[in-house]
Amino acid sequence: SQTIHQWPATLVQPVGSPLSLECTVEGTSNPNLYWYRQAAGRGLQLLFYSVGIGQISSEVPQNLSASRPQDRQFILSSKKLLLSDSGFYLCAWSVSRYSNYGYTFGSGTRLTVV
Amino acid sequence: QKEVEQDPGPLSVPEGAIVSLNCTYSNSAFQYFMWYRQYSRKGPELLMYTYSSGNKEDGRFTAQVDKSSKYISLFIRDSQPSDSATYLCAMRGPTGTASKLTFGTGTRLQVTL
Q1: Residue A18 burial (CB count, 10 A)
Q2: In order along chain A (114 residues), what is the average pLDDT of each group of 10 residues?
Q3: Cross-chain residue pair A103–B101, CB shorter than 8 Å
Q4: Residue B20's CB: how many other CB atoms inside 10 A?
């Protein structure tokens, strides 16, 4: 069966520090991968999605970047965090060939920038 | 206007009540409709999945889609305190790599004893 792992679960970082959040998927090949940010009252905001290794699409211009160095690995990064980067970050995957299916989400990372 | 509108709640009901959660949408190309349940500090989990118009039932949950009105609903019968969560609707257009899920903002549900 397919599983998605996301870590860390909680992170407190100072303003100006770098960020690296990692997500890996097991049990499937060539998934579509997504990074979302969820803020209270604002729903899920799609940040990046990837349909293959090295292929990244950015939905919202911001202080973050994403990379996909391996088929089932998706990384969210920042060189210098801002206070506004605080939020709940979710990684998700979907089957790429039959993209009418829904997404499966990881357990999320709660990031607090102080 | 947002593509998907969802009342944020919170919605508070007593245990055993029937709950109705709703979303409206504006994009007539949407064909696949989903409901996700999200417990506090957890990722959303897929609860119900429907294609086009009609009803789908799974235990105490019924998903209903009315494409002519661009309106979808999730009904929960005999609600339990364990149903307390945020419920997000999601939808997408025809199959294709460019067709991504569009989410509602979520409705927070509280089922009280």
Answers
A1: 10
A2: 90 97 93 90 87 90 90 96 94 75 91 96
A3: yes
A4: 13
